[in-house]
């Protein structure tokens, strides 16, 4: 009993201890410097605001709620952000903190226990006395479309400066980086401008430079107004106001309109040298004003003319003027809106929103149930989820939302993100993988990322434990996750928003992360060059390459960042047009030359002069800085040469009609005097019955003239035959897009509310005084049919083989006038979040009835969690009336066709891919239900071999697979996937992009005037569309380059260069070493000699690469210097060694340097030698640097002096790596320094001369001469890399240099000679110090050449003193140990031989004596016997 009582007391006391030991822990989640040290949020303020995040954890998980407090009333608790049963993330705001240092305490309490955390932070005054700034000015002459014209960067600021307050009201700015701001002015600045920033303590004045050059006034200017009238001008389309043209003899004058309400960009549209035409637009907001057209004269603007228009604005009108809109609900899951029109409908497009989500955007015929444009009835039905909370919000266009009370709604819970990851694929495409708590009972409505909606289970890849995982590929060229974030909505309309400041996980605390991005510093963009400059684009689209560096030490992996190039000339971009509608070209990192390169096209007949462009690193929006070419000097500009320029699409100069029998023939004269007309798309509408005629004009429609000026006809069938009925009405041209042969467009869209920026492309510029562009057909008499068509049947069938294929069959009739056979209705399928449209085909028809069929393959993204309800509109009879039928009507009259459910169907499918060039290589395949075991089958259509290639992925996700090994082809090819079970995806066709840099039919051969015939021949050998990108010489096409430029390039590892044959290869060698090739772990013997395993190298594989730390780059000269201690050398192998060397240590020092450049005559004698002087240094990344120098090359007769640029890139390879150079794979051992040397065009004295680059290599030791020996070796490698090697050795440490016997010369792979120059130069040859010079002899070239030697440090198993040609301390020639051994052995053998011979003769003598004695004895015996 006592024992039981004791145990009870023990348990009771233990429980008390557990309760008393309740532990509350607080973790700081806001400890960065920028979060705890701040300037005021805007420059003029005196106080700072702080927000701190922290995690509270109840270790015992008692479930007691946390209570929060602080020791200051300035700390405002914001409430829990995310929590679970034991933890919670919260935030406090500390607002209005004045200058000073602060500490405040947060107390977290749960039950009887509490814990505290102290926050220390500072509100700092902006240090104006020590602040400095720099300004980068743009030159608007280079790019008049540049949004921001100055970049202001503040230096010497420790904290972030977020906002500025400018005194000047014309200043607009955007924060573009850490304490950097892009600035523009709404006023045109011709002189330097002083701006004032309002700081709390004082105002700071900053000087901005002029953004214009000194122009000379263009006195020869002609102005034409469109229309040429002072009367009231009516906009022909929304935003299509009056225009004016300026004819000028100047190449690029700057014009602007004074007193306008916006910055008017007047752009050149076509012309020839000495006669250019510019166009400008007058906005409705300037109606009635007297506007001054100005141009620059020096640095001042002068008036050219005045312009005044009174404009009648064309406004968007949803349905004319509807009567009051009625709302009704006759079904639990949809509602109907209806009204009657009062005024005429004007073809406008209407947007319909349900709970803020746009369901459909449509013009006629959606919702038009009966009548004509003059008076009609409207009725449309919208469905909603049964879980949608009442009331729901319905909205048309920008009208006030309507609250609709619905029946039987239950609602649901908010959906949460449980896990998140983001991975870069290609360009600015990122794969976002999220897991949510969406389940079968709480389905996702949509996920919205970066403005794009993904509905239902569209991107779902798995269902597990009532959670759903989605993979979504997002393009971050535009937008980011900072503000829009990730929005998740369930089917009831409840939304959760996650931004980059949102925690989605509590254990561990995790936030949504943005794609990798960085703030561009414009000063770090350097060495901008182009493959071709001064390029002629007459009548031909041209391929080019842009090269540049971005030197930012904060970027660790420079090959993982992307830039995009946008061309901003008029042939590529219409001023004001949304950038999302434009073409961008993306960068690739060229690992050979350590530069970014962007392949792009220049349109034919582009504007003469400087081509405007900008670069971006993604996340574009209206406040993003575009790195415009106008921020860079003239030497970085791309110059266009052309004898004619055309940046305006074709125009219509004549409109006619003729009525023939039952048809209306429309006639257009179309003119495009430079590029010529290609084709055009037209929409003509019946003014009363809304009949729509869409057609295209091509050269087949041309009845006279040429594509420069020609007449084109098209016939509109008004009635079927002479006996059928018809209705007289006017036909209006509402939409026209005309294309010229180079892709320029002229656009007219009467009711496009977002299309006003196309006003300056109006093809009807000559008809702006005409109210409307109309045709009249009046051969039908006065017949009118007031009875609209009716729907007599409607049915829906789902395919048994494919559940996503739906067949809808319906029939309509009109007993009075019959249905128009060339006017088809539109079938609409609507869900609570989406819509789909389909135009049916006619199955059968007679005078009164028409039967239609529409086969729809429902996309995977559509209706995977909801019912589709169908409606049909757009039946038009021959008497001027239309009809349509809502989902509500169909459900009430055709009970078997209320809707259709599709559900979520999984299947393997390819949906898209990354772009790929004709050079082949890597390809991303995008789709669904992917797996790493899938195989890609490729059918190259240029080979007729079927699916002949099979590739396995090198990266895999459920929606994206990366393959490498696509072959070179300039023809389309087809891909499909197959899994292990033999299930195949759909076939997907891919069109490669062909960058044809060399063309026999143009001058795009990068030739200088002084090119010789041999070089021209070489270029002509590279004219096919499969030619790889050549090296960037930035030379002019039509004249010698005044200063040679850039580093050459190797496209990618998969792109071979053209070669000249034959290329030199190394001779086979005998395998050396004892044992042969150093033993099986070192290497093995081949027919060419020893092939060594890394890190072993050499002819016998007995030398071992020494692993060392990366040396520091020399900041003044391209050298590589490494010091190694004897102790470090003896500790090999190891991953690395300490960089510190004891001053008493014995160490070795190696040095490699680029020494000089020599021109060699035909006798191989130097006639010119150039010692390299000052080098310009720039860091590429943590493992590579660039050095640039220029030499002046003076001819022997001193008549001419040219410049040659030499660029050396040093790259350190810490680990074993395989690279490609000159079409050859090269294995780089660990701890190797590679020199990539580029030489631009050189002015040879004679085409038979060569150029020789001299490199120096040396090794030395601190050991005295009498303790070491040295040795020099030079020869050919045996590893198959076709190289020469130089090995200079002191003791058992060697400096090993490899010199590849080929180079890239004028874009071709050619052989080079490597020569040991020690015999002709005064080199050091001591036991403790050895020096050698190697000359790389380069054949004659015109543009540039790339060389690629590399160096490493070796440790040898054999002592240098054992070598035959070793250099040692002895003054007399010393004998090696081998020689001594030979002498000793010889002496011993000699002694043995002497002893043997002596012994032999002694024994022989004794035997002879004995024999003679015996003979004599026997002779005596014989004598005595006788």
Give the tags.
mainly beta; single chain; globular; 1426 residues
Describe the 3D structure.
The chain is mainly beta and 1426 residues long. The protein is 6% helix and 45% strand. The strands form 24 sheets. Strands 83, 84, 88, 89, 90, 93, 95, 96, 97, 98, 99, 103 and 104 form a 13-stranded antiparallel β-sheet that branches. Strands 24, 25, 28, 29, 65, 66, 69, 70 and 71 form a 9-stranded antiparallel β-sheet that branches. A hairpin with a 2-residue loop joins strand 98 and strand 99.
Ordered list of secondary-structure elements with their pairings:
Blueprint: H1 2-20, E1 24-28, H2 33-36, E2 37-38, E3 47-58, E4 67-70, E5 75-83, E6 87-98, E7 100-110, E8 113-123, E9 132-137, E10 150-155, E11 171-177, E12 180-185, E13 193-198, E14 203-208, E15 221-226, E16 232-234, E17 243-248, E18 255-258, E19 267-272, E20 275-281, E21 290-297, E22 300-308, E23 310-312, E24 326-331, E25 334-340, E26 350-354, E27 357-362, E28 368-372, E29 375-383, E30 392-396, E31 402-404, E32 417-426, E33 429-436, E34 444-449, E35 452-455, E36 460-464, E37 467-475, E38 486-490, E39 495-498, E40 503-506, E41 509-511, E42 525-530, E43 532-533, E44 535-536, E45 542-550, E46 564-567, E47 585-590, E48 595-602, E49 609-610, E50 613-616, E51 627-628, E52 639-641, E53 645-646, E54 651-660, E55 663-671, E56 677-686, E57 692-697, E58 702-705, E59 709-717, E60 729-740, E61 745-749, E62 774-777, E63 790-798, E64 805-813, E65 826-830, E66 835-838, E67 841-845, E68 849-857, E69 867-876, E70 882-885, H3 887-893, E71 900-901, E72 909-913, E73 921-928, E74 935-940, E75 947-951, E76 955-956, E77 960-966, ...
Parallel strand pairs: 2-8, 16-23, 43-80, 44-52
Antiparallel strand pairs: 1-3, 3-6, 4-7, 5-6, 7-8, 9-10, 10-12, 11-12, 13-14, 15-17, 17-20, 18-21, 19-20, 19-53, 21-22, 24-25, 25-29, 26-27, 26-30, 28-29, 28-70, 30-31, 32-33, 33-37, 34-35, 34-38, 36-37, 38-39, 40-41, 42-45, 45-48, 46-47, 46-50, 47-48, 49-52, 50-51, 54-55, 55-59, 56-57, 56-60, ...
